[in-house]
Amino acid sequence: MLQIKIDDKQYRAFIKYAMATCDSFSLVFEKDDVDKSKYVFQDVYFTVVEFIVDKKSIDCHPDTGTSFKHSNIIYFECNKHTEAILQTANSVLDWDGKTLPEEICFYRNGEKWFVCVCHERYLFIYNETKDDIIFLKKEGIEYWHET
């Protein structure tokens, strides 16, 4: 497992790489406090709803361990349409539940590959490949092995 640091200038290249090499990604959508049938970021949800692969109600994120109340983790397919939505952010840390849905994660072959724990500013890559390392070096993305 690698811990990485992505600065805002590297964000778009990272998303482009993740979308090209992964099958799906997930975001946590918290339900609205007033109307539990709606999400806090309902507008974002409706822009990607047609690309949902799976949706689960959670109290704890299965990949980050973060606790959530009244939330769903939603998995989306990686494609040009969903990439365009992810490219609207300026930073991986924009997926913090304040400006956009939370805890962006990417998956390859059904296994977690990238995990973002926004509140703690932790970014991890699991099962890194030689191509991943080449990409990180090319883009100047800092990484180190986490034990």
Task: Name a few traits of the molecule.
single chain; alpha+beta; 8-stranded antiparallel β-sheet; 8 strands; 36% strand
Number of separate domains:
1
- N-to-C span: 7 Å
- How confident is the prediction overall: mean pLDDT? 96
The overall strand count is: 8
Work out the helicity level. 10-25%
Summarize the main sheet: 8 strands, antiparallel
Q: How big is the Rg?
A: 15 Å
Query: Which regions contain 5 or more consecutive residues with pLDDT less than 50?
Result: none
Write structural notes for this entry.
The protein has 4 helices and 8 strands. The chain has an 8-stranded antiparallel sheet with strand order 3-4-2-5-6-7-1-8, covered by helices on one side. With 147 residues, the protein is an alpha+beta fold. 29% of the residues are buried. The termini are close together. It has one domain. A hairpin with a 2-residue loop joins strand 5 and strand 6 (111-117). The model has no long low-confidence stretch (mean pLDDT 96).
